[in-house]
Amino acid sequence: MDATIADPMLAEMGKNLKEAMKMLEDSQRRTEEENGKKLVSGDIPGPLQGSGQDMVSILQLVQNLMHGDEDEEPQSPRIQNIGEQGHMALLGHSLGAYISTLDKEKLRKLTTRILSDTTLWLCRIFRYENGCAYFHEEEREGLAKICRLAIHSRYEDFVVDGFNVLYNKKPVIYLSAAARPGLGQYLCNQLGLPFPCLCRVPCNTMFGSQHQMDVAFLEKLIKDDVERGRLPLLLVANAGTAAVGHTDKIGRLKELCEQYGIWLHVEGVNLATLALGYVSSSVLAATKCDSMTMTPGPWLGLPAVPAVTLYKHDDPALTLVAGLTSNKPADKLRALPLWLSLQYLGLDGIVERIKHPGQCGETLSLQKIQKLPRHSGAHL
């Protein structure tokens, strides 16, 4: 029995998206006709004059813009071959616009189901039990909202007295010296905090990795801040630094954060390995942290998929104030492309896509080793 889509608009949407993507991917260069087009003079911009453009013309315009500026020589498009799973993610954005036209009750039920399903699947796949999820386009946005949640949690009078309570007991956010550039400045700008609220923790230089946070030095910094009347608020740990992919001693950092009541947030590409059957003890310790930010789009090769911040907190009022939860259907529909893609890939497909880059790296490393000159008496 063949599976059919009962909703004609939904079927037409999928068909149009497929045709549009084929048109963009198959086109190789601008046509002479399009190169010779000139905007119509007048008060109204050329493309808006008359009765409008048809879909083919608009898609052709997009294709031309993708090739380069009008004054440049035509170039072949560099559209990535995203495959069927990529089309599924892109379909989620069109489908989200269609779903938003449903009546309020149906829309509420559907968006709640999509959000709860995606949250449960991600928590199970990445071993973060009983967590909540916040989906966001800007990768750093989740951490900014987590910082706001930590402020509301530690400063009970913040809602009433605002930044006066922060002035009397300044919060401190700890970042590794190996953290990605601009992260600290972004957090201060988003939270309205002065730069002295940031504390950059050096990495080990005498013992261990030069890209791993110095835990002993961090503890000294925390003690100094407490003695000066400051409030150690949040620590950002790395599970895969941008430079070399090294992971901090997350288990030890978790113990330190529990001792001083500090919120522990973890981010990094190595969090992807939590979906595998084997994982390092340091990365596994991230499952016990207060929050983590993941980027399933790059990990799974999915375009236009949001980043996800998983977190644990018991007070829904504070998460609402911090902006981590919302009653708006549009906010809940951010999870739709990922909801579709995860179902399409299945657990086996997700694991395979995470394992594949590592297997390629091992193969390339082995090939380089085999090309090394052999010395007498040495065997590889």
From TrEMBL:
Residues 25-44 are annotated as: Disordered. PANTHER family: PTHR42735, PYRIDOXAL-DEPENDENT DECARBOXYLASE DOMAIN-CONTAINING PROTEIN 1-RELATED. Keywords: Decarboxylase, Lyase, Pyridoxal phosphate. Its cofactor is pyridoxal 5'-phosphate. Gene3D superfamilies: Type I PLP-dependent aspartate aminotransferase-like (Major domain) (3.40.640.10). This is Pyridoxal dependent decarboxylase domain containing 1. Residues 25-37 have a biased composition (Basic and acidic residues). One of its GO terms (molecular function) is pyridoxal phosphate binding. One of its GO terms (biological process) is carboxylic acid metabolic process. It comes from Cebus imitator.
